[in-house]
Design a protein that fits this description.
The structure is a single chain. The longest helix has 32 residues. Helix 3 links the parallel strand 3 and strand 4. The chain is α/β, with parallel strands linked by helices and 301 residues long. It has a six-stranded mixed β-sheet, with helices on both faces. Helix content is 44%, strand content 22%. The chain is elongated. Helix 1 crosses helix 8 and helix 6 runs parallel beside helix 7. The chain starts with 5 loop residues before the first helix and ends with a helix.
Length: 301
């Protein structure tokens, strides 16, 4: 986080991640299992599935779909609540670093990457592309300081669902400090359009529990409203409310088949990237197993 240039910071994280994996077992986001087809003369023998041959006594080629035109959109919260911090950098800086890291990683795999930034309204929309100069455009957009106030999750996700007709990956990076009904309606709209959705809930450890010890006035970071707080009462209510809100978010994501990650700003960004890639890899293997079962059933018939 001490690296000032956002693109250099993202590059350092991605290179550290890749060096840590050495010979990675992951195909990444770009290559996913598609289907089996019968072997024909001239096919590369290395693509044969010998385990399937052992079960069916027939030759099948395992096809992979090289999705070089796959589209990923990063949806990044730029509201004032993202400016909260209890350490050397705030949630907004951490969130834009996550977004920059994912953009760098996906671009290196020739995936198209787009960006939507928002607060109470949509700030910027950059279409998903893979071409020279596009990554730098994303980095410049992400580097802009916070300018909005409150958070409106509905508007950016509704617009994204309208303008993106091709199914793809949508990664939402936000603290999700919005009414719970807003979260459900926004995410369900994306899923209904066939998009795969990942939510990276970005939080500061200092806001996960109530830490004030003395009574006094506090200021709402988004609305500017002043409130008198008695810690003896507020601490218990805050913890109950925060935990309930988090559990409701988890329930919504589980019901919609959305991968939810709770990212704390004092955690390693390499771990965040590793967790996302691991989930993508596991999902690809599940698709492959379903394809294998379908072929075996067809052979039995």
């Amino acid at each position: 986080m001490r690296i000032k240039d956002l693109q250099l910071r993202a590059r350092a994280i991605v290179e550290g991640f890749q060096n840590g994996l050495h010979r990675s077992p992951y195909h990444g986001f770009s290559v996913e299992f598609n289907e089996y087809r019968p072997y024909t003369h001239g096919d590369d023998p290395r693509s044969l599935d010998w385990k399937l041959y052992a079960r069916s006594d027939r030759y099948f080629v395992k096809k992979f779909e090289d999705e070089t035109n796959r589209r990923c959109h990063l949806v990044v919260d730029q509201s004032r609540s993202m400016g909260y911090t209890s350490i050397d950098y705030d949630k907004a800086d951490y969130a834009r670093t996550i977004a920059a890291t994912l953009a760098y990683f996906l671009s290196s795999q020739r995936d198209g990457v787009g960006l939507v930034t928002f607060d109470e309204k949509i700030d910027q929309v950059i279409s998903a592309r893979h071409r020279p100069g596009h990554l730098r455009q994303l980095m410049v957009a992400l580097s802009r300081p916070l300018s909005g106030a409150s958070t409106n999750l509905n508007s950016p996700l509704e617009q994204l669902a309208k303008i993106v007709s091709q199914r793809g990956l949508v990664i939402v990076i936000s603290d999700l400090l919005v009414p719970i009904e807003t979260i459900g309606s926004s995410l369900s709209l994306l899923r209904s359009r066939g998009h795969e959705v990942i939510v990276l809930r970005t939080l500061d450890r200092g806001e996960m529990s109530f830490s004030a010890t003395q009574p006094g006035m506090i200021v709402d970071i988004e609305t500017g409203r002043e409130l008198y707080i008695d810690p003896a009462i507020a601490s218990r209510l805050y913890d109950i409310g925060f935990k309930a809100h988090s559990q409701q978010i988890k329930s919504i994501c589980d019901s919609l088949g959305i991968d939810l990650f709770e990212i704390i700003t004092d955690q390693s960004l390499e771990k965040c990237l590793y967790d996302i890639v691991t989930v993508q890899h596991r999902r690809g293997r599940q698709v492959a197993r379903r394809g294998s079962a379908a072929v075996s059933l067809g052979t039995a018939r």
